[in-house]
Amino acid sequence: MRLHILASAVIFGIGAAALAVSAEGEDRREETFRQLELFGDVLSRIESDYVVDPDKAELIESAINGMLSSLDPHSSYLNPDDFEDMQVSTTGEYGGLGMEITQRDNLITIVAPFADTPADRAGLVTGDRILAVEGDSLVGATPTEAVERIRGPQGEPVTITIGRDGEDAFDVTLVREIIEINPISYRLEEEDTIPYLRVTGFNEHTTERAVEALEDMENAMGGPLPGLILDMRSNPGGLLDQSVTLSDLFLDGGEVVSTRGRDPRSTQRYNARPGDILDGAPIVVLINNGSASASEIVTGALQDRERATVLGLTSFGKGSMQTIVPLRGGRDGALRLTTARYYTPAGRSIQATGIQPDIPVSARQLDPDAPLRFTEDALRNALINENGTEREEIAFEDIEQPPEDWPEEEDYQLHRAKEVLISMMERQSAQLQ
């Protein structure tokens, strides 16, 4: 039954494409159907002649995944279990290690660990490769397959093998936890004078929790917040609507982001409502090369609207939007399909280019011979920037780096963000007097 369903999905998808191009000529339409016939011939030959009896459902599922992964790194097929896991990741909790992963150069690569999770506490970082789970290689595995191997019941240990630039591969044994997807953490810095808000992801509760955090800090300070550090470093993104509503908190109306698909008529614009929750108090946004997708939408909106100063390193550069298309109501899983690009209020597409900070600052001493290259444009089949713009790395000498004797355990980017915000708050206070 599952084979029939999956095969139908392949035939429907290719058949739909054939109908869509019929207006462009009968020859092209016939060629599409010849390819369908070729697919059927190959499947039939595998079924009859392969050395062992193959799992036919897996063959079809692999064919669907191959078709989608040839488009871009973010389009994929979600079988029913994967579809359920995806829904959990945006609404609830799961047993796992707490990290966002992707596939790069045929290796499972960490986009970012989530704050205060086993992955984060073990010191895993953006760009680490997961080479194996319990000694079984993940080389060539899809992110979906890796998730199936990494996740599991709470309290169970799992050993993963990590590859890191400049080091020999090493094993890390972690204990799976229930990953409660709380995307917000906050505190008052510098003797309770500087509000700090960290956003680690964009799920259904991000904006709601951000409002609660801002209100808590306001109550603790006994009045309006004088400024804010908004930390979105290593934030892999999430729900588009939450990036819009979070931006809305700090903007007094106007455009946040627009999305444009293949059909120009599909363009959508998302605007902020009147009212700024900080009433114009200065904001410093922290980003790095692990800041992707929804976090780039927020950063781009606040930067273009001159609402915030951006500090850190150029962001990841994922400027595409994926639509989840349930198949038969989700009973046959779903397609995750790239359907649009998004644009900042100034009309910038950041696909493959990322957002450059206003103040380039590194968290650590950089090696000029080993530039940061864990970026969207380095992923296999990544979409190019449709404006022909290529990613520009900031010149090494233009990036401020911590002093050589700077303590490793201290966050230099945050240190500089606090200095910048204090200066901005002082200027604003002087203007109001």
Automatic annotation (TrEMBL):
It comes from the Bacteria. One of its GO terms (cellular component) is outer membrane-bounded periplasmic space. Residues 83-151 form the PDZ domain. GO terms for molecular function: endopeptidase activity; serine-type peptidase activity. PROSITE patterns: PDZ. Transmembrane segments: none annotated. This is S41 family peptidase. It comes from Marinicauda pacifica.
